[in-house]
Structures are given as structure tokens and as C-alpha cells.
Amino acid sequence: MIELTVNKIDEPKFDPRDATFDVIENIMRKDVDVLILTNDFNAFGLDKIRKFAKDRVINVGITEQNMISVAAGMALSGKTVFVFGIAAHLAFRGLEQIKLDVCVQNLPVIFVAVGAGLAYGPDGPTHQGIEDISVLRSLPNISIYNPADFYSIAFAIRNAYESQVPSYIRLDKEVLPQLYNNDNDIKHGLIIHQQSKVNNQGIIFATGITVWLALKAQELLKTQNVDCLVVDIYKIKPLNTNLLKFFLSDTPWVIVLEEAIDLGCLGELIAKYINGGTTTLSSVNLGDKFLLGSSNREWVWDKYGFNPLDIANKVLSFDQI
Amino acid sequence: MDIRLLKEKSLYIRRVIFKTAIAAGKGHIPPCYSWTDIATVLFYGDVLKIDPKRADWQDRDRFVLSKGHAALTLYSILADLEYFSADELEKFATGGALLPGHPDAEIPGIEVCTGSLGHGLGVASGMAFTSKKDDLSWSTYAVLGDGECQEGSVWEAIMFAGHQGLGKLIAIVDRNNFGATDSTENTARLDPLEDKFKAFGWDVEEVDGHNLDSLVSILNETKIRTHKNKPLCIIANTTKGKGIDFMENSQYWHHQMPKGEQIDIAWEQLGGKWFD
Fold first, then answer.
1. Which of A198, B146, B193, B230 has the fewest CB atoms found within 10 Å of its own CB?
2. Is the pLDDT of residue B167 over 80?
3. Hey, is A148 helix, strand or coil?
4. pLDDT at A8 (0 to 100)
5. CA Rg, chain B, in Å?
6. Domain residues for A222?
7. Into how many domains does chain A fold?
8. pLDDT tens digits, residue range A99-150?
9. What per-residue confidence (pLDDT) applies to A10?
10. How far is residue B99's CA from residue B93's CA, in Å, rounded to a whole number?
11. What is the CA radius of gyration of chain A?
12. Domain CATH for A49
């Protein structure tokens, strides 16, 4: 058992929404057939785009179902449409529109969904984004991104635009620590935090803001002479299963960190690719219940074992260590 | 096409619908029949600017059948116009067939996958927005069921289209007064429908949805709406099951299939021995 204090976040920080709209702005300056729809949700970057493309940023009011149908109609007539709103509302109020109008017809509608996981934790179950990936993963044709870094967000926006398929990009709400210094390694859907994998090494898989927690746990474990990989899964669907299988091939233990409900979560997905019965798999997530009351991140992380110290101690308790 | 030929065509389409549904043991005959005359005028009355030889022609008018359960009317017309082989009708709703019970966008001539109600007008509004924004020549037509107008998403779309002033969007409401099992006025009252559309910023006109002269007149006027800044709703007063008397205005007949003697009676009312 280790008892260390985790340092406060000290890396350079960035705003996910600014990072997103910087890339969208660049795209829209080159491609006049790109539009943005929003359900009366705003961002500084959106106002910047309005200054040069006012007629291509349409606030449709608080009408999520229609917004998504309209986006599909625009896409059917030659447009690429970014749809901007809160994740919990886009994914659930407009779920049938996402399914039938966008995904069945495989249209270039790109959802930019703010409020990944517990970004809106204190706002209650109406605003938390903890079930959206489980639900949307079930839809054919859709790509799902969950980036938590300036460069992986930029990759997600560009990749979604270039692929011209239905895409769902989740963003955090808060200013975040920057994870990467460049985009050199951002191309395979997964980022491995270590130069190379050595045999019989454990892995912490994480997505979104939990990557930062995983990296802190990795640091703590190093002080106990336990080396492990951290894998940032910023593209959840389609998942790079070849790379995933390669890393899982001789892994003694796996931890999966995700601010999400248990059913349909990343842990469930990764379990599919674990061969044999010797690998210990532990999913750290929010179980099978709603979070009522004010559930801010620090409180939930403590309660559900997300803190780096808890993760490190969990690893140290594995038989394989 | 003159009125006499349109009448013949309308009867022919009804017969094809009936024949296809009976062969498949499936189909929504009464909801198809309430908009068959509207469809006939749209597709054969020089209203829609389309080219069956170029289904993806960029300048075509867009047509969205929002009440997708009434697809057999559209399928019968598209087959007649040779968007696809009439043989496809014989395979309707069978395993691996091109034509399912509700239309999807892989079918030549179908713009949008519909069948879950309340989607079509929003999608059509997105199309009409593009046409207006880019100053394109084509118009967008959507046919809605009146029962469908009980969906909240329809009113979101009506608000959007009215707010955006989509003058080249024409919504035709098939006002047969029935949902699937009851009158719309007994479940979630729609009237006064005309006033509601007007209050949302639309032009509204009303027409007898089975009077071909009136339909030709009102639908042809939609072609010169390029200067308008309000979308147009045409409330077409129709009869569910129009053409087969025991199906007309009956809450029993929605997707039920006629059996035995009912089939013979219906055949007779659709023109006797035309198929024999």
C-alpha cells in the first residue's frame, strides 16, 4: 500500500471548446459547404466563426430533435454539418433522429457534444454524460471520439470532417491539462504512453479526462518499481482492435478507467479482446445506477476509486504484482 | 397529363397498391389511398421537377414522404415511372427485397428513410434551407400524415421553417382525420390546424384531397413560389381508405388486410376485372 499525495495538475492548460472551434474555423474558411447548428448553446469560438460566416452558424433554438433532422436534410443536399450542444441532450433527446436521419443514411453530420462524463457532474443526471457512449456505440456507421487533449481534439475534428460519416465527438467542459506536446502519435485511435511495451506489462486503459488520472497512477506505480502502460483511447468507435489485441496479448493485468456506467462501457469492450483466463481485468466506472445529488468529479472519483492513489493501490493488490 | 388521364392513373395506382399488398399479405392500404390522388398529381401532373432517368439529378425537386407507412403509393408510382423494375413490387416486403414496408434511401427515387413519424418535415426543412441559402432552383415537398402532426418534433420543424422563411418548402398534410386506431380529434386534438400553421408563420391553403382539378390547380401554383418568404402548408382533406367503401373513414382499417369476400368486393370497386 502506498500513501502519496498526488501533485495538483501543473501541465499547460487549454480549453477544449477553443481547440475545437479553432479547427472548425480553419475548415470553414476553406469549405463553404460546412455549416454549424446549435441548440442555443454557445462558445467563444463559435462567436469568432460568426464574424466571418454568420450565415453558416444557425442557432435553431432549443429544438434538438429538429436540429438533427435539419442537419440530415442539409447533409443530404451537399453540406457537412457540425451540430453543437450538450452531450446528454444531443444523445438522448435526439437519439432516434441520430439513428434514422443521420446514421441509417450515413451522412456527414458531426456532433460536437460538450459535457463528457462528469463534466456536468454537479448538475445532476439531466446533464451528466455517462450513458451516451454506451447507447451510441450500438448504432452502425457512427464514429465516436472521446479526446481530452488539444491535439487529439484537433485530430478528431479533422478526421470526422475528412471521413464524411456520422461522428460523435465528446468534449470536456473545463480547462484541462495538456497531455501531449505535438500530434506526431495521434493517428491510430490509441496513444501509448511509453516508448515500447515490454513483456508481461500491465496496462491502464483510459479515455477522456481519466487519461490524466491514469498517468498520475503510472507515476505512483513507478515509485514502487511497477512499470505499466497507459493507453489513451481517444477514438472509441471504430476501435483499433489490431493494436488493442497486440497490447493485450501477454498482459497480466488490465485496468479500465471511464466516467461511464458499466453496461456497454469501455471495460466491457476491452474484455472482448482479452485472450485466455490469466489476465486480471478491473473496470473502474460508475456501475449501474444514476448519480443523484451533486456529484462533482472529486467526490465521485473518491467514492468510485478513480483517484490515482486508489488505482495504484488496486494494482499493487493484484496477485500478478 | 389531363384530368381524364390523371383519373385513370390514380385508379391504376390504387390497383397496383392493392395487388402488391394482397400478394405480400402486408401494407397500409387505407393510409395509401388517402394520399394517392395527391401523389398522382404531384408525379404525373407536371408538379415535381424530376427525371426518372437521373434519380440523383442535382436540380430535381426533393420529395419526402414523411408518413412512410404509406410507402406503397410511392413505390407503385416510382415503379411506373421506371425508377426501378416493376418486378420489385412483386417482391415487396419479402426477404432481401429492395422494397421494405417503410421506405429507405437506397431505393432509387426515395430521398429519405422514413417510417418513424415526425422526422420528414425536419429533414425536408434542412433541404429547403440549403436551397434557399445557396439560391438553388429546386423546391422541397413533404407529405405528412395528420396523425403524425401529433409528434412534437413536427412542431419544432414548423417553427424552424416559419422562422427561416423557407418559401420553397411545401408541406402537404394528408388530413384524413385518423391516426392508427382512432380519430385524431379523440386522442390529441389537431384542430384548428390551419390556424396553428398560420400562427407559426406559414401560408396555409386547404383543398379537397381527392378532387383532381383542385389538386392540379393548387399544386401547380406551388411552382411559382420562388418569391415567397413563408413556407406553404396545404391541408388536403382526404378520406382514409378512399376507393374501397368498407375501408373508408373506419378506425378499424389501418394496416389490416382484407380477406376472402372482402378482396372480391374491393377488386370490383377498383375497376372490376382489370387485372384478369
1. A198
2. yes
3. coil
4. 45
5. 18
6. 190-316
7. 2
8. 999 999 999 999 999 999 999 999 999 999 999 999 999 999 999 999 989 9
9. 60
10. 6
11. 19
12. 3.40.50.970
- List of residues 6+ apart from B92 with CB closer than 8 A: B20, B21, B23, B24, B26, B27, B72, B75, B99
Using alpha carbons only, give the angle A125, A131, A137 rounded to the nearest 5 degrees.
160
DSSP alpha helices (H): ranges in chain B? 3-24, 29-34, 36-44, 71-80, 87-90, 120-133, 152-164, 184-187, 193-199, 212-221, 261-269
**Would you list the DSSP string of A97-109?**
IIIIIIITTT--E
- Partner-chain contact A70 B104, CB within 8 Å: no
Q: List chain A residues with CB under 8 Å of B130.
A: 73-74, 77-79
| Contact call for B123 and A63, based on CB within 8 A | no
pLDDT digits (tens, 9 = 90+) for A188-230: 888 877 645 666 789 999 999 999 999 999 999 999 999 999 9
Tell me: do A27 and A159 sit in the same domain: yes
Same domain, A219 and A309: yes
Residue B47 C-alpha from the chain's centroid: 14
For B14, residues 6+ apart whose C-beta sits below 8 A from its C-beta are B33, B36, B243, B270
Do A93 and A138 fall within a single domain?
yes
Q: Tally the domains of chain B.
A: 1
The domain boundary residue, chosen from A152, A177, A202: A177
Residues of chain A below pLDDT 70 = 1-11, 194-199, 275-276
Cα A128 from Cα A86, distance rounded (Å): 9
Residue B275 lies in a domain: no
Q: Flag if B156 and A101 touch (Cβ within 8 Å).
A: no
C-alpha–C-alpha distance, residues A43 and A16, integer Å? 10
The structure's pTM equals 0.95
Residues contacting B261, CB < 8 A, separation 6+: none
CATH of the domain at B141: 3.40.50.970
Q: Which residues touch B32 (CB under 8 Å, ≥6 apart)? A: B17, B70, B71, B72, B73
Q: How far is A169 from chain B (nearest CA, A)?
A: 22
pLDDT at B122 over 80: yes
Identify which of A60, A74, A96 has the shortest CB distance to residue B116.
A96
**Interface mutation target, options A36, A60, A69, A98, chain B, most CBs of B under 10 Å:** A69
Are the beta carbons of B66 and B145 closer than 8 angstroms? yes
